[in-house]
Amino acid sequence: MRRLFPIAAALVAMLGLSGCAELTKIEGVYHAATTITVPAEIVIPATNAFDILKGTASLYADYCIKLAMKPAICAVPIRRVVVRAIRSGTAAREQLELSVQTGQPAVASIYNVLIAAVNDIKSTPAATFVPGSGGEAPQ
To answer: What is the chain's percent helix, strand, coil content, to nearest 5?
Structure first.
């Protein structure tokens, strides 16, 4: 709590010194982030892609656990990326569920979190993991 007060005071001082133009920019960014939407027709394929990648990431996690994290494919940096992507993607997926069910547009900022999670998983071996292959992706 003591650390938060100096940070808040500095932020208020910066906003006061930067003038109205900067405040208008901040308001514009906030407005864009909270009002721009993505059609449900675009959200559905992204959620399906995330669901598929989450499934392969689960197989990857099971493999790493069974082998006590010893293979190079189970290195800590790779696992961290996968875990973070699964957590953030699952949270975004759950928030997008209502728009998918109703066919209504979804908030773009939440959609972007889901897309980032998909891209993060795709950048790891977990995206192409095949059980029983020794952790190697198919050729």
So the answer is: 75, 5, 20
Instruction: Kindly report the backbone phi and psi dihedral angles of residue 38, in degrees, each rounded to the nearest multiple of 5, phi listed first.
Output: -120, 130
The two three-digit tokens of residue 111, written as one number? 């959609």
Encoded tokens for 30: 């906030």
Q: Scanning the structure block, which residue is given the tokens 């795709």?
A: 122
Quick one: 49 and 112 in the same domain?
yes
Residues 16 and 41 in one domain: no
Distance of CA 126 to the CA centre of its chain: 15
Residue 9 lies in a domain: yes
Residues of the chain with pLDDT under 50: 1, 23, 136-139
